Amino acid sequence: MKSASFSILAALILAAGVSCERIASSSLAGTRWLAVSIEDAVSTRSAVGAYLLEFGDGDIWSIELDVNTCNSVFSLGGGSRIDFTTPGCSKACCDSQFAEDMLRILDAADRYQLRNGRLILQAGGETLTFRRCATPGCR
Question: Bridge-partner residues for 128, per DSSP?
């Protein structure tokens, strides 16, 4: 019975022209996140600035660093898979080492979790954590 219900649901989704990936990305669409920390096997570093990661409609994302702003596209795969396309950034000098490391981890991130108001991105042995930003002017 459950198998038949799932088949019917899948058919309705496909008939509506909505891909499974699009449904998954809607969990991030329109959300905003403030950087909290970068963690690796040796240490945890707290964010030194108010870095705002924002997911627009569809597959667009942007991040405000110390000085520069970067943006690109992302995609979600099955389970907890995520892929950020290498972003284009403004070229003003100079972002902090934390901001540069954060951007490097974003570019390499391949897994994500949404847990307790946190967005957790993982790339290799590094974890980048953000907290949900619910108000328009949060920093």
Answer: 38, 121
